[in-house]
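Quarterly update from the structural biology core.
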Amino acid sequence: MGLRMERVKPEPGQESVWDYPRPPRTEPTSQRIRVELGGVTIADSTRAVRILETSSPPVYYWSIWVGNQVAENAAWSYQNPTPGYESIQGYLAFYAGRIDACYVGDERVEPQPGSFYGGWITSQIVGPFKGTPGTEDW
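Predicted structure, tokenized:
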């Protein structure tokens, strides 16, 4: 049996993951999105795409490939995404918990709970978030 979900009411300027759609939607973002590995910025963009899905913090995708310096389990991409998600074809996303540091603007993000999920949590996003034990059926 899963945990009971009680939506956190967002303050002005915040978003609730419970207001995000299902199925997920993609949208461009002009926020600066940045990833660091070994003290070096390996991804930096103000033209990323984010995916919004009910109960999960946003996942950010870049239209770049940073090469073999990124471990296979730290990032992923979709070469042939399902219809409706063509905007992320060939784009790269990073697991915030498997890389040294990830930022939205100047804020360092917290990784979404759970080893499977790739969402980025900032002070602008409220939950609760899928990924903790007992939330599998949300």
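Residues 15-123 form a domain with the Metal Binding Protein, Guanine Nucleotide Exchange Factor; Chain A fold (CATH 2.170.150.40).
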